[in-house]
C-alpha cells in the first residue's frame, strides 16, 4: 500500500460530496420529524 497515510485531494472531495448528498437526502426527513415533535 505504498505507505500513503494522507488522504489525496480526490478522496477528500469524494468524501465531501458523499456526505453532502446524504445530508441533502436526510435533511427533509429530519425536519419533518422535528416539526412533528413540536406539535406534541
TrEMBL record:
The species this protein was found in: Moraxella caprae
Protein name: Putative major pilin subunit
Classification lineage: Bacteria, Pseudomonadati, Pseudomonadota, Gammaproteobacteria, Moraxellales
A matching Pfam family: N_methyl
Transmembrane segments: 6-27
Gene3D superfamilies: Glycoprotein, Type 4 Pilin (3.30.700.10)
Keywords, alphabetical: Membrane, Transmembrane, Transmembrane helix
Entry keyword annotation includes Calcium: no
Amino acid at each position: 500500500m505504498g505507505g500513503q497515510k494522507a488522504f489525496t485531494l480526490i478522496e477528500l472531495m469524494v468524501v465531501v460530496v458523499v456526505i453532502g448528498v446524504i445530508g441533502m437526502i436526510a435533511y427533509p426527513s429530519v425536519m419533518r420529524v422535528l416539526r412533528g415533535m413540536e406539535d406534541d
